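hey team, just a heads up i'm posting the complex here instead of the shared drive bc the drive is being weird again. everything in one block, sequence lines first with there labels, then the predicted structure for the whole assembly after. its four chains so it's a bit long, scroll down
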Amino acid sequence: MGRAKRNTSASARPDIHAVARLARVSIATVSRTINNVATVDPRLAQRVWKAIDTLGYSPNTQARALVSGRSRLLGLIISEITNPFFPELIQGFEDVAVQNGYEILISSTNYDPQRMEQCIQRMLERKVDGVAVMTFGIEGPLLDRLAQRQIPLVFVDVAPNGPLFSTIEVDYRHGIREAVQHLAVLGHRRIGFISGPLHLHSARERQSAFLRAIGEIGLKLRPDWLQEGNHTLEGGISVMQKLLDSGDPPTAIMTSNDMTAIGVLHALYKAEARVPEDFSVIGFDDVTIAQFTLPPLTSVQMSRHELARCAVLALRDHLEPQPSSYVPRYKVQTKLIVRQSTGLPAARPFRRGNSRNARKAVAQS
Amino acid sequence: MGRAKRNTSASARPDIHAVARLARVSIATVSRTINNVATVDPRLAQRVWKAIDTLGYSPNTQARALVSGRSRLLGLIISEITNPFFPELIQGFEDVAVQNGYEILISSTNYDPQRMEQCIQRMLERKVDGVAVMTFGIEGPLLDRLAQRQIPLVFVDVAPNGPLFSTIEVDYRHGIREAVQHLAVLGHRRIGFISGPLHLHSARERQSAFLRAIGEIGLKLRPDWLQEGNHTLEGGISVMQKLLDSGDPPTAIMTSNDMTAIGVLHALYKAEARVPEDFSVIGFDDVTIAQFTLPPLTSVQMSRHELARCAVLALRDHLEPQPSSYVPRYKVQTKLIVRQSTGLPAARPFRRGNSRNARKAVAQS
DNA sequence: TGCAGGCGAGATAACGTTTGCGCAGAGGAG
DNA sequence: CTCCTCTGCGCAAACGTTATCTCGCCTGCA
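-- predicted structure starts here --
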């Protein structure tokens, strides 16, 4: 009785009972219609859809999630949203997730394990169906906590074992080989590399891809041209300054990420060296702002959109049984984007205070 | 019977009944304890908390939302996540929302009204408690759709009428006045301004703040030094080129956002002019990458964190009755951040191909 | 024509909370 | 000592779905 009289006001949001009443069917039939259950009579289904349309009904996600146990919510954990690497990743993740009928919950850890803990806690409380851990590196114990809950997880590069874990492989080699060969073709023989922090798996991968590419073309790398950076602007500046101070710097510098490359650009600017006339610089990631630097930065692109797509699909494949013909392959390519920070090597080695230096020359005049 | 025997397996996530059983109280008492209802006996409460702790219980958000009608979910609609303005806003929003016990749902419209429509649809389906519309400008009809549902909304600058609407005011004048006076103190008398697209409220506000500040110090602005840009890098480049081509450019250029300023930097670089020796440049927003440009960009900062804080608090104030002593005031300050793109005006007006141009001089040598 | 079998739709029990209501017990007043 | 009030806990009804079970009807075959 109470049930029968509920929800008669026009302003209230229609519920499944209202639809059922209007279509003169039971709520069960409405539910089946919505969920495309095959056994429902097409004529009834049409009545139901029409009722749904006229009422502007949309099912209550909370109730759905409560009974079905599936929230259609995907978690996305990233390191730091202000790092220009991530916004594009998020964008791609959102696009693909929404296409597949999922909503996303984003959390940034800011490299703080405790914050990471809270992120995971929040996601578990919201009952996410799966989590993409797109941070570089994850603490072991936290991973265990996630693993205990029966939630599918997807990672980049690093691959813990477990039936619910997926890994996205990045083919660093291809793009980095292209970059090295691009420099070699221009005539560079003195190529340096500033790595990321080597405790990160992805940084080690990039460095070894570089070393391999150098070896492939028969070049030998001077040990002091291989330096460890920390993936930050400041790191790039200080390492490049060290290279300059050494008195015998390479003519081209490749870096493990774009922030480091921008740091290199800053150091060179401060040392009054010109890019690409005195030094060629190549970044990695091809972050959006790489186009906006002066000069625009040549960089190895790793498609964030592709990465995001793989992540969502990997989770989806765990959650929804796919046709057996479907063979998942989570692999992301890299490729070189040539802009204006690379050019022919300088005829003579750069020296600080050299007359070839533009701004200094003017200052003296 | 069924009820009594459920959920006895150790691996299952504990339920409110499990807690009640362990604490030897009813589920109602557990619920009241969790929600800090005053009438519960402190000694019972302690038993309940202890049981919650030992079981590692956390309430099911979906069930909670279903019965209480409140999802504790806040929507955040932005223009475009790859625009460097937004990530910091998101970060702040996330921080403050989580502090207040809310989770957030992010959606970017990419300036596409249809996509905006979908965003709103998705948010309504997830039954968000409130939405922050942080895009610059919103379509009227969409706003109406949001208004129909009884959902609190918060906007920036633009203020529709309605009991559920809040507006965050930005004090553009303060920061822009500081910028103009900073240039004036350095000795600039020829100050230009590149505005944003003037159909945007915020762009008009910034321009009028600039005009007012110029008037305050008794300067008069030559009409051709006031140009309309479009808040993009390309816009900045082309407008600056037009100013240079005019043959009588200002010595300092202020812009309506940082992307435009970066465009100006590019145009000047291409024209072989030096910053700040030949031209001073001031941006607006103080986006993260403003620190990374060459030279680092002087810019008027509008705190995204503050903006986000206001947005969350405005929504919260609608959702949760605040003590009467609490007087909300949603206002965001702006202030000048001086970096290295501003300096003394050039002694002589800049002319393209002038001997003062650094790189050209070298090329000739 | 009668009966078995199958299929489609309706009734209803979950899902895990919050919350109004009633009731029991304690304490105070007459 | 009795009655009334007040306080605090438990019972049970929602919340809006999905899924299982059941029942009725139609078809086809003997």
